[in-house]
Design brief:
The structure is a single chain. The protein is globular, with a radius of gyration of 15 Å. With 145 residues, it is α+β, with helices and mostly antiparallel strands. The relative contact order is 0.15. The chain has one domain: Aminopeptidase. A five-stranded mixed beta sheet has the order 1-2-3-4-5, with helices on both faces. Helix 3 links the parallel strand 4 and strand 5.
Length: 145
């Protein structure tokens, strides 16, 4: 398994990333998800997982000024994590998170945050298994004005 930072100048890698983003967030259109590619390297950091030459996963991370449950100032934040169905439970997601941890430490951050949908038990178990601790459970509300 090869974990590598995305090369934003590689159309093939960016396309691989967008294809996997569609699998993680199918409620969005390809165009919506592709628009965010312009933020690569500035706002969004991305690592890809390849099995030989086949893309099998990715992780997106960024900086947040506030990390829920922490008073240590800004920190790294896992914004998205995906591993293809056939490659799950082989340690790939953990390797992707480790890549983000290394990046966050290089930025001088002392915390790494993440979140998951409240009913995503698989994600909850994964996060706890690799050293995250649950700090809060919330339901978000919105009212149109």
């Amino acid at each position: 398994m090869k974990i590598q930072p995305i090369n934003k100048d590689s159309k093939a890698q960016v396309d691989d990333w967008i294809d996997m983003r569609l699998k993680l967030w199918p409620e969005h259109t390809r165009d919506e998800l592709a628009d965010e590619a312009s933020q690569l390297g500035d706002v969004i950091q991305v690592w890809l997982a390849y099995n030989d030459d086949q893309p099998v996963g990715f992780i997106e991370a960024g900086t947040r000024s506030v990390i829920e449950g922490s008073y240590d100032g800004p920190g790294g934040f896992v914004e998205g994590l995906y591993v293809g169905q056939d490659y799950r439970y082989h340690g790939i997601a953990k390797q992707l998170v480790e890549a983000v941890e290394a990046w966050a430490k290089q930025q001088g951050y002392t915390v790494l945050g993440s979140n998951a949908e409240i009913d995503n038990e698989t994600s909850d178990k994964f996060h706890k298994a690799i050293g995250f601790r649950e700090v809060d459970r919330t339901i978000n509300y919105l009212k149109d004005l």
